Amino acid sequence: MEAKAIARHVRVTPRKARRMVNLIRGKKATEAITILKFAPQAASEPVLKVLQSAIANARFKADKAGEAFRENDLVIKETYVDEGVTLKRFRARAQGRAGRINKRTAHITVVVANKEGDR
């Protein structure tokens, strides 16, 4: 069984979110939660939320199918970060210049699945 969760327009740069995603790729879901909870980077919080949502989606799918659900069997199969829209802002500067500020957003996707040996 496979479950997926996506967070779109997250106000964190994709490069910073990819650092967190690379830490948890291929690990058990419970181990990844522990890693993200204690990571000092600010990008770990949105990635943790998406991971918890993917686990909840897996639990819902298992209940709907009438299967037994064990969170310890879930492994992070895929996880990636795509670039979202860039918010363009302007800040007035002296002598009539305008400073352009680009605020980047990210789309975070996490796919969890049962261990390969189970099914």
TrEMBL record:
- Name the SUPFAM superfamilies for this protein: Ribosomal protein L22
Q: Which GO terms describe its molecular function?
A: rRNA binding; structural constituent of ribosome
Q: How does it assemble?
A: Part of the 50S ribosomal subunit.
The name under which this protein is listed is Large ribosomal subunit protein uL22
State the family named in the UniProt similarity comment for this chain: Belongs to the universal ribosomal protein uL22 family.
Q: Any idea which UniProt keywords this protein has?
A: Ribonucleoprotein, Ribosomal protein, RNA-binding, rRNA-binding
Q: Which organism is it from?
A: Bifidobacterium gallicum DSM 20093 = LMG 11596
Cellular component terms per the entry's GO annotation: cytosolic large ribosomal subunit
Which CDD domains does this UniProt record tie to the protein? Ribosomal_L22 (cd00336)
NCBIfam families to which the protein is assigned, alphabetical:
rplV_bact
The entry's function note states: This protein binds specifically to 23S rRNA; its binding is stimulated by other ribosomal proteins, e.g. L4, L17, and L20. It is important during the early stages of 50S assembly. It makes multiple contacts with different domains of the 23S rRNA in the assembled 50S subunit and ribosome.
Signal peptide bounds: none
Q: Name one GO biological process term.
A: translation
PANTHER family per record: CHLOROPLAST 50S RIBOSOMAL PROTEIN L22-RELATED, LARGE RIBOSOMAL SUBUNIT PROTEIN UL22M
